[in-house]
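Researcher: Please translate sequence to structure tokens.
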Amino acid sequence: MDNNEVKKAIDQLHVPDEAVLKAIQQGINRNEQTKNASSTRKWLISGVAAATIIGGTFTSGFISPHMNKVLAQAPLVGDLYKKFGDDMGANLADQHLVTSLNETSTKNGVEVTLTSAYFDGDVVSVTGHVNDAVDNGMNEKGEVSFDMNFENEKGDSDIWKNGGMTKKINKVNGGYDFQLIITYPYDEFNTNLTLPITIRDINGIKGDWNFDVPLTQRENETIVVNHTENYPKDQTSFTVEKINKANASSTLTYKVFSPYKRDQIDFKKAVDDKGNVLYTFSNTNVLTERKVEGGYIKTIRNPFEKLPKDIKSITLYPAVMDIREEPVTHSLNASTFTLKSKRSDLGVHVQDVKQNGNKVVITYVLENFPKRSRSQQEILKKNLEYELWLVDKAFVNEIDPKNPGPPKHHSISKSNVTTLNEKTNQFQSTFYLDGDEKIENFSLNKTSLYFDFSVYIEGKEFKPFTIKLPN
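Model: Translation complete:
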């Protein structure tokens, strides 16, 4: 048997003993499945014989390129994830659960190569390299930014962007290594899919760089829970639907009913019956949201640590992490008035409004705000510089509550703030009418004071509850 025949035989090996050749066989299957699909010849040998042949192959220098790639892949990819501080990726690489990629696209001198990917729980990671031609773009040297979409979507309507994207960059010889981490956006898991990725812009350099990334999740067990907990006083309820157990992580999927659309309701933490903290508050993935009678229902998925095998229950700590309410306005045609929060006892009592030439000076007291330390008081003062706005009455309704921004040429969103009495929370804000921001044809009668209390309303914790896991 000559060298080529030996290489071909090894590429076609089917080994019953997974303990001997698990990593090798996974690599061969992954890389050779297309090439060998039509092959009818099978080699059936014992695990001992396989080890003998492979040992002989090593010493003789006859090694399959694909086998060599698999054997080398784990430490190299594992080191890459360690450099990115990604413990999950390093763990999966050690278990040979990372897909090795070699997809390259070049546009306008910028070469992008995708090098690896993994899919575990709701976490999707893609690593790659971009050459140093990106330094010719608009960003500062050492910075790399991507404008990209998934599944052939365009713009911010891309569902894969809903959970946010984490980008990590390492400077290396000839360019930059990068890792992109995104959240799987669908309720039901497709554990074997191809994800189209289009990078449209890198540092202001236009593309498109197109890739098709294979994603496989080898372990994904669903535990059905269906536990509902009601909080009638707060008109809020939680229904824990299921837990998905992947290889290195888990996810919890649940529904929340609330009369308030914009509140961020979540679990502060989750603790198993052994006292292990499985989860502390992080970014959540809102899968669906719909309006129903009396409020809104959101389907949410949270990432967890991998569940220990022997746990019997999990205690969840629900809370309103962020209470949102509509901003409050009042006309400046009165010199004294009070802005009141609708969902708290907070207030802004305006004591005086004066226009002195190109300045509007407003004196006010913050009511029922909690006591603060000296440093916290300075932070409050700084925040007030940007949170009290003057807005043309005719343009108040044009402010988007989801993404509030001052209407251009019809608002002033920056003021100079002076503390008049720290003990009573008395402040004075001075707005300059001839600054960078202006209100066309300004008059006090046509202008409103605008304030959003949401930043200052403290969250609310609910009573914890426990879900039982099936045996």
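Researcher: Any highlights?
Model: Confidence is low (pLDDT under 50) at residues 1-75.
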